[in-house]
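Proteins fold reproducibly. Look at a sample protein:
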Amino acid sequence: MNAPTFSPDVYKSRRALLKNKVASGIILLPANLQSPINYTDNAYAFRQDSTFLYYFGLELDALVGVIDVDNDQEILFGNDSTVDDLVWTGPKPTVQELASQVGIGVSKPLTSLATLLSKATADKRTIHWLAPYRADVAIRLSEWLSLPVQTIQSTPSKSLVNAITEQRIQKSKAEIVELEKAVSVSADMHLMAIRSVQAGMFEYELLSCIEAVAYANNCRTSYPSIVTTNGQTLHNHFYGNKLQEGKMVLCDSGAELPSGYCGDLTRTFPIGKNFTQKQKEVYQIVLNALTVAEGLLKPGVFFKDIHLAACRELTKGLQQLGLMRGDVDESVNAGAHALFFQCGLGHLIGLDVHDMENLGEDHVGYGQEVSRNPAFGIKSLRLARRLQEGFTLTVEPGLYFIPELIDMWRAEKKFESFINYSAAEAYKTFGGIRIEDNLLVTADGSHLLGKPLAKTINEIEGLRT
């Protein structure tokens, strides 16, 4: 197992701040459990719960962190390895040794947790928990708290959710260092993809080149990689297509460090040595939208407004291609551009590739000042709130030519005053293009995270020669 990423003082400081924000009661933060693939002893690669990792820093499964706010006490619950465990896993630190690594002085067997919680309930003390995203954790919480699973899922502590969101959403200097590393490894993964692609390869062969870079840097991928010649499908995890000259690959992949911090980059590049003229025209439109959006990042600006600015830039470009027409603002306000840009511009990034969305996507991404628009396209915007210094996020405009969607909207005569469906016919086999960077919001603008990665047409083609 890896040692905690940060010093004990960092974790102690994080927990102290959480105690101050929550003010009273008992905070209950369970680690994740092993998740079997097809039988108990054959498990998926373990991934720790990000909130547990943030406050307790330990990668091991089946631990529980308890913060008793009223008595200013922190306890790590878990079971020490048995001799039978050691045969299969080798020696592991005791629970008390683990607790000491993250600045906790008290550890107890997991079997004693139910007693502590039962007494707290009898004393009418508030117990704070988060809505679990895994069924096994929901069942454990249900058993410990003697509450139905539905109640566990539907009544998380609002004060705990608010406190964690407020604390984790602005990244510390130490966290930014980790994110810089994660994005740099992610850039190397994409560099390998751009240099390695050849006509005749299968997508899974290119995937193996990309993910080998992650593992060679003691990382894993922060989400299932998207490596596809069908870029019009936003999240395509099929890897069986043969790559053909004249087509493109859309590669959306990122590295996750042992610390849990994630990168999330996308590049689209030709399978041959050069983009076709048609591909260059669409690519430049997307790149222009990326440039406009990144130039608008700064504290105080709503990300929703940046999303809409990118939509207007995409629409201007589509008009130049003859695919759209009419007033740009009216077109975007109506949602006509969503035929070609069906999703949002970006999301927060950190210990989760979509940071803290388990706490509630609207809560984390929208806050109190913005409400989600239910219209097609913009309803998929994951981040809309007012930006603050220390936010880390993705910016990822794209254009996606989905033939089924084009046919459906054309049959419905949808937005005919804005969309030239006759011209769109010629793009139904085009695919899609996305370009994605990861950025830090600074006091006066933004900073590109990680090492630079080719993204202009000339830079991409320069890597293909």
